[in-house]
Design a protein that fits this description.
The chain is α+β, with helices and mostly antiparallel strands and 449 residues long. The chain is 33% helix and 22% strand. The two termini are 23 Å apart.
Length: 449
């Protein structure tokens, strides 16, 4: 194995190959602190040629290579399972904006925030937005097909992608970087690699669509008694506001944790059982329209409406959930998709299961209500409770959902993939993996067992 490090240093120099365990300690543990993985070194290529060379060295020495962007995966996807080396994409960081096609050509290591800062100079932005925007990279977002808070309006990362360059596990460089909106000339590499979690190729560059930065954002924070009530409001809001770009839900447990972070005062009296955050974005501020809409709904217990910069105060309650939960312990994060009308039944099932069988476990549920995406966070899971994760994911399957809505399978859910993908499905995915990564060096132990 040490031969690999020597070969990498010979190719790239010592500055690009980091072996000091202290310096690379943040690369070898995931964002939640749940997953760890030792490696020989972290290599930081600065261009596609160097990525190709690193993949070749790994291939010839049969050394596992785990690609890492911002390391914000919530399923341990960027934490090595079988050692080897980490390939960090962070120095692949060039950005070029093309205003004629309203697209950006980005290196895989560009963070979402960096892209938005650059695009803003032309009044543009990336449509997918996540609370991890300061660290999450475009390469990581493509590899996980990240969803985020504007999914109901613009779709996920796959829908924004019109070009890709990657080094496959075969060592071949494939490039579809013409930036064409329309291109039906055979298999679409961008679609194939998007959501592949680094198991087929290392993404080096991409071309993504941009949208005009909305002039105004109007946000309502709404207290409700039941999740069914929140769903009725969401369904009606989708009909009334074509430019509705976020519908998020939160529960009391999560809001209490967020409150404890900085002691901020919840803006609506008592913290409610459930609350809803709705955002409309467009050319005008829509306070009156939102107020009128809320007046029509007797499910609304209380509400606050704000806009533009001031609306950040309302978003704070939703955006700080992941941080607040992590402060309370090492969470088991179950990001699942459930048919929207089944969501109340599913969450009732989870509460009853925990109450009866796992009384020490604490559940914090929140998520993207508009697209049926629930983040079930489990705190205080001890070794006797190991089965809880599997039991909840099995129930997701029985409700007709998916065990991963937007975070991917990573290493957290590999044993449960067969719950919502058929044997034929998994077998066919493995066949693709065998062809594109014949020596199985890319992200072993991620996505598949
Ligand atoms: C506070 C917080 C909020 C979040 N909110 C959301 C949300 O709303 N929606 C959502 O979808 N996710 C969310 N996430 C999860 C995470 O931010 C996303 O999955 C993001 O896309 C990961 O980007 P990254 O650069 O950190 O990738 P990493 O964590 O480094 O890697 C993720 C996976 O992609 C692979 N990968 C990374 N770069 C490449 C590359 N260049 N080529 C090939 N494979 C690669 C890795 O091997 C790994 O399997 C959140 C995370 C946090 C911490």
């Amino acid at each position: 194995m040490a031969d690999v490090v020597e070969a990498l240093i010979r190719s790239f120099g010592t500055g690009s190959v980091v072996v000091d365990p202290e310096i690379i300690s943040s690369n070898t543990v995931d964002w939640t602190g749940r997953f760890k993985g030792d490696v020989l070194c972290v290599v930081r290529p600065v261009n596609s040629w160097q990525v190709q060379r690193a993949v070749e060295i790994s291939r010839s020495t049969h050394t596992p290579i785990t690609t890492q962007g911002g390391n914000t995966s919530l399923v341990g996807g960027a934490t090595p399972v079988h050692g080897g080396i980490i390939l960090s994409s962070l120095l692949l960081n060039e950005i070029e904006i093309d205003t004629s096609s309203q697209t950006a050509r980005v290196g895989a290591g560009v963070t979402l925030n960096a892209l938005n800062l650059k695009a803003k100079e032309w009044g543009l932005c990336f449509a997918v937005d996540l609370a991890s925007r300061d660290s999450a990279t475009l390469g990581g977002m493509i590899a996980t097909n990240a969803g985020g808070i504007h999914m109901i309006r613009y779709g996920g990362t796959r829908q924004q992608l019109i070009g890709i360059e990657a080094i496959l596990g075969t060592g071949k460089l494939i490039s579809r970087m013409e930036g064409l909106y329309k291109d039906n000339s055979g298999y679409d590499w961008a679609s194939i690699l998007c959501g592949s979690e680094g198991t087929l190729g290392v993404i080096t560059k991409a071309i993504v669509k941009l949208i005009p930065v909305p002039k105004h954002r109007t946000v309502a924070l709404i207290a409700v008694d039941t999740l069914s009530g929140a769903i009725r409001i969401m369904v009606d809001a989708r009909r009334r506001f074509p430019h509705l770009d976020a519908v998020e839900f939160m529960s009391r447990d999560g809001l209490e944790l967020v409150h404890r972070l900085q002691g901020k005062k919840w803006p609506l009296g008592e913290i409610p059982v459930y609350s809803l955050l709705i955002e409309v974005a467009g050319d005008v501020v829509e306070i009156d329209e939102l107020a009128e809409f809320l007046d029509d709904h007797n499910e609304v217990v209380d509400a606050a409406i704000s806009y533009d910069g001031q609306a950040e105060g309302l978003w704070y309650w939703r955006e700080q959930h992941s941080v607040a939960i992590s402060r309370a312990g090492i969470p088991y994060k179950l990001d699942v998709a459930i048919p929207i009308l089944e969501m109340p039944g599913f969450l009732n099932y989870v509460s009853e299961l925990v109450e009866l069988e796992y009384p020490k476990v604490r559940v914090v549920a929140f998520g993207h209500l508009g697209d049926g995406n629930v983040h079930v966070n489990l705190l205080n899971v001890g070794s006797p409770d190991d089965e809880i994760e599997h039991e909840i994911l099995a129930s997701v399957a029985s409700y007709g959902g998916s065990i991963s809505a937007e975070h991917g399978i990573g290493r957290a859910k590999i044993h449960d993939l067969s719950l919502t993908r058929s044997p034929q499905d998994i077998d066919s995915m493995r066949s693709i993996k065998k062809v594109l990564d014949p020596t199985q060096i890319l992200n072993p132990g991620i996505l598949f067992e």
